[in-house]
Structures are given as structure tokens and as C-alpha cells.
Amino acid sequence: MEILTSVNNPKVMTWRSLKDRKGRLETGLFLVEGDRISREALASSFHAEAVLVREDIPVPAGIPEQTPVYMLSGRVFDSVCDTRTPQGIAVVLRMRTTPADGPRLVALDRLQDPGNVGTILRTADAAGFNGLILSPDCADVFSPRVLRASMGSIFRMGLSFPSSLPEELRRYREMGYSVLSSQLDGEPFYQRKNVSDRLILVIGNEGNGISPDVRAEATHHLCLPMRGGAESLNAAIAAAVMMYDLTREI
């Protein structure tokens, strides 16, 4: 097992670069931190390039034999991690995705907040949706904040990254999917009619909502009731309410 004690080690510098989208795109790698998500990563179909263990932490069991394990000094390990109090284990993984496929999908239209993207990913997994379709200007699903919020769901969900979300929605609509646009000026969500068993729920940008081009591809324009004084809900919370209601009869 190689022991690394310098923040200037080339491997350490590469791992540190994975905090930024540029580094992830250049290397094709991303990093997950923490015991639980690391175990999920190692058990998933993603290829693990390396397991990083802080020097004061025992090497965990269950690491595939062919996966390199590196012991890092505390200072070096902290420099690689994004969290303020890392748990002492991290895994470097090769990026890859399985395209979103199935009867129930969520599309994200320009969502910027990594916490919202990760939470929606986790909730979609829990609610039994099959995958996410992300517009090009969404928060990066492989960013540390998205990964933490997703709590490992990224290893179980299909992900598609079309160059044009409106064109992708049109393609699904032509295959018989209902495309449900969530918007403040829509029809009452709980009174929706004629929604197909195959559907895509579209969640819009936190500040600006659904873009006009995406809205034009929707078969349904729906809004959750606002019976109190609030004008809107957080995007991830609204998505959760709608996802669970859409699956309650399944």
C-alpha cells in the first residue's frame, strides 16, 4: 500500500482537482467521500480507480482486490476532500452514466442549486422513478455537493444529458409519454387528467421556472396548490410532493 504525505504528489494534485468541474471533465474522474457512500460506490458498477484512506483509519473490508488503496496523511487527505470534517475514506471513480429509461422520469430544466439536484435524484430513487434527464446548464451531478445530497442514489439511477431538453421531451412525447410541466400558472396538480402511465415530470429553474421552449413541449401544465401565504415551494420539495403523488397508485 502506497503512503502519500505530500500535497504536491501528482496523484494528490489530480484528486484535489476533482473538486472542480474542469478537473472532473479533464480527467473523467470524480470523488465520493464518507463511509456509506464509499461502500455503495465500491459495490456499484462504476469503476473505482483508487480508494483513499486517512492514516488513522483502518482499511475497510470489501475493497475489490484489483483496486489500488492509498494511505494519506491527515493533511493530505483533508486537502483532497471537499467536506470540512471528512470521515477518513474516499473513492475515486471513473465517470459513466446509464441513460434514463423507463416509464417514470424526471427532467430538470436549468436547475442551478447542487443541493436541489442531489435531493431530487435521491427522492426520485426513493419514489421509484427510473432516471433523470438534465438540461445542459444544470448543476453537475458529479460535483461534491450533488453527490452528498444524493446519498448514493447516483449509483442506481439512469442519467441522460441531451444537448437540447426541448427536443428530448418532444421525442418522448412522440413515444406516448405525458410531459408534465410544473409551473406557478398551471392547472391544479391534484385535478390532472389523462396522464399516461409513462410520464416525465419537469422541474424548472429555482428563480425563473420552466423555460418557454420546454413549456411548449409539455402535454400538461400543472401547479401545486398554495393555500397559505407562500408564493412557491423549494424546487426539490415540490418535486418530492409531485413524484410521490404520481406513484401512489402504483
Give a short synopsis of this structure.
With 250 residues, this protein is α/β, with parallel strands linked by helices. It has nine helices and eleven strands.
Task: Give structural notes.
It contains nine helices and eleven strands. It has helices at about 10-15, 20-25, 35-45, 75-80, 115-125, 145-150, 165-175, 210-215, 235-245, and strands at about 1-5, 30-35, 50-55, 70, 90-95, 105-110, 130-135, 160, 180-190, 200-205, 220-225. The chain has a six-stranded parallel β-sheet. The chain has a five-stranded mixed β-sheet with strand order 1-4-3-5-2. α6 (about 145-150) links the parallel β7 and β8. α5 (about 115-125) packs parallel to α6 (about 145-150) and α5 (about 115-125) runs parallel beside α9 (about 235-245). The mean pLDDT is about 95.
SSE run: EHHEHEEHEEHEHEHEEHEH
Beta-strand percentage range:
15-25%
State the share of residues found in helices, binned by percent. Answer: 25-40%
As for the CATH topology of the largest domain, it is Alpha/beta knot
CATH class of the largest domain: Alpha Beta
Largest sheet: 6 strands, parallel
Termini separation comes to: 49 Å
Note the overall shape. Answer: elongated
Structural class: alpha/beta
- Rg (C-alpha, Å): 20 Å
Figure out the total of helices.
9
Domain count: the total is 2
CATH superfamily of the largest domain: SPOUT methyltransferase, trefoil knot domain
User: Could you say what the CATH architecture of the largest domain is?
Assistant: 3-Layer(aba) Sandwich
Average pLDDT value?
Answer: 96
Low-pLDDT runs of 5+ residues are none
